[in-house]
């Protein structure tokens, strides 16, 4: 069975995969695999950006999203006309000749990966570039176009080392998606420590971040900055210690729904 893998740490947000997909399918009739994709309104592969934090502590990562060609595909089960089918290589396709545009497959898909073509009155989605694979090409256009090799496509057995421990989108659905992701960043807590009297940043200050009995440690750098990366959602407590200064404690840091920039943290001299 063929699968896709996406290493998020390698994606630089160039959007080549999204553009290549559009170029391959917009205005091109690849029947019996797919009719032309409209010029607007559909992205069978789309790159989403995820900015985190606030200026100046901001980071962003990108995630390529497409049809997951699920092992328990909800779209296939929902189609009343047998238009949605699975190939021997595992790719799930919509037969444009059988599709009546009822939209049942689009409603059933929790990934918003199925689109309705207003002009042709049919449903459409990623085909894994089946027309290329069946004509001697090894890779779908999105994979071939990726300059950083963030996206891979191969037999499941060939990518097993990547798949073990990888994430999938909406695993709770039980649809067993076959697009696997690694290195999706967690949240961060960051800030800058400074001395307001001397008007200088505090370098080498010890910083502790605690959540649920687990404590992480960091030291402020030459700019007075500290970063705690790849955090799980939750509430945290922070303590800053620096020679000659009082403890600085911050409780109730809410990183339950996103990264937190604590901004500039002023220390107080010991009396």
What are the salient characteristics of this protein?
single chain, 271 residues, mainly beta, Alpha-Beta Plaits, 2 domains, four-stranded antiparallel sheet, elongated
Topology (elements, then pairings):
Layout: E1 2-7, H1 16-25, E2 45-54, E3 57-66, H2 74-78, E4 84-86, E5 92-94, H3 104-108, E6 115-117, E7 122-124, H4 130-133, H5 141-145, E8 151-155, H6 160-163, E9 179-182, E10 187-195, E11 200-201, E12 206-211, E13 214-219, E14 225-231, E15 234-241, E16 248-255, E17 260-266
Parallel strand pairs: 1-9, 10-17
Antiparallel strand pairs: 1-8, 2-3, 4-5, 6-7, 10-11, 10-14, 12-13, 12-15, 15-16
Describe the fold and architecture.
With 271 residues, the protein is mainly beta. It has two domains: 181 residues, Alpha-Beta Plaits, CATH 3.30.70; 80 residues, Sandwich (Immunoglobulin-like). The strands form six sheets. Strands 10, 11, 14 and 17 form a four-stranded mixed β-sheet that branches. The protein is elongated and about 80 Å long. The termini are far apart. The model has no long low-confidence stretch (mean pLDDT 97).
């Amino acid at each position: 069975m063929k699968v896709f893998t996406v290493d998020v740490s390698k994606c630089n947000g160039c959007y080549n995969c999204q553009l290549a997909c559009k170029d391959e399918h917009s205005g091109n009739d690849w029947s019996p695999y797919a009719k032309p994709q409209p010029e607007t309104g559909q992205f069978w592969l789309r790159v989403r950006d995820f900015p985190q934090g606030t200026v100046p502590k901001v980071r962003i990562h990108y995630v390529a999203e497409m049809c997951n060609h699920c092992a328990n595909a909800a779209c296939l089960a929902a189609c009343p006309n047998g238009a949605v089918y699975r190939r021997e290589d595992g790719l799930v396709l919509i037969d444009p000749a059988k599709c009546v545009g009822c939209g049942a497959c689009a409603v059933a898909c929790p990934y918003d990966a199925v689109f309705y073509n207003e002009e042709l009155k049919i449903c459409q989605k990623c085909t894994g570039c089946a027309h290329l694979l069946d004509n001697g090409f090894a890779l779908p256009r999105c994979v071939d176009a990726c300059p950083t090799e963030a996206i891979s496509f191969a037999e499941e057995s060939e990518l097993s080392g990547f798949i073990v421990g990888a994430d999938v989108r909406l695993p709770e659905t039980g649809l067993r998606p076959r697009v696997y992701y690694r290195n999706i960043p967690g949240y961060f807590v960051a800030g800058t420590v400074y001395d307001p009297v001397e008007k200088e940043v505090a370098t080498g200050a010890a910083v502790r971040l605690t959540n649920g009995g687990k404590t992480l440690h960091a030291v402020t750098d030459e700019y007075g900055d500290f970063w705690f990366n790849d955090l799980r959602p939750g509430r945290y407590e922070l303590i800053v210690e620096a020679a000659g200064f009082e403890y600085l404690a911050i409780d109730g840091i809410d990183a339950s729904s996103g990264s937190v920039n604590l901004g500039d943290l002023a220390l107080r001299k010991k009396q």
